[in-house]
Amino acid sequence: MSAVMPIPSNWTLDNVPLAHVDVDRVRDNEDLFYMVVGASFVEIAADLYTQNLIDYFGNDPEVATWLTQQWQHEEVRHGRVLRAYAQHVWPEFDWQRAYDAFYAEYSQMCTVDEFEPTQGLEMVARCVVETGTATFYTALSRQATEPVLAGIAQRIRADEVNHYKHFYRYFRKYQQAQPPGRWKIFQALKRRVLEARASDADCALWHVYQLHEGEATADRARFKQLCRRLGRGLQRHYPVEMAVKMVVKPLDLPAVVGRIILAPLSKASAWLLR
Description:
Layout: H1 30-44, H2 46-56, H3 61-89, H4 95-109, H5 119-143, H6 147-177, H7 182-195, H8 200-213, H9 220-235, H10 240-248, H11 255-273
Helix pairs in contact: 1-3, 1-8, 2-3, 3-6, 4-8, 5-6, 5-7, 5-10, 10-11
């Protein structure tokens, strides 16, 4: 892991020290290029699914207000900072062109049909999504060879962990009003974990790859090889135990059971990452 340049807790694009980026340490790192640009696409497109969430939770002013005033704002901020970093380090890459192609496809994927049947179970799904982002940025901060990028990843990680805490709190509120039972919670967790293997990230990376490689020569087989390579690199830094603890938390398992299943679930998660 490289040194980390701290980013202020009240961070905005204006106070991220892009002028201090050590371009030579990251410019030739193709894996980081794909991860930074791909992540910027998904984050900056948060407006798409935020409105769907706001509509879904429209009868709960507390949740709708938080989604509008904090969660959406912070997600888009992540995307704008990552975009600025990518354009600073790789200015020759036509970010907007690749993003427009991504957005055209991704906007068709973001529908209310993907939501869980109840608001409580959708909060469970949100916990899985935030687990994925928090652990991804944890790994990215460890994998980053450049201090400013490592600092940005750590700051985004902190935001994503905070988002997880909010979604988990809202889940508990709905659970108290209408308990879904552990089996339904487990099924919601399972569905979202399995979907995570082939969703937003694949769509974003494909459009980065197409433009970077050239549309005429872009090839699905080589793209899959690229994704496997990125996965192997990420796996070396991935906080598996952290991921497992966050995912199973909504099940509210007895402490003894949690300790027993932690090791096998960690091994299964490591396999899933491959």
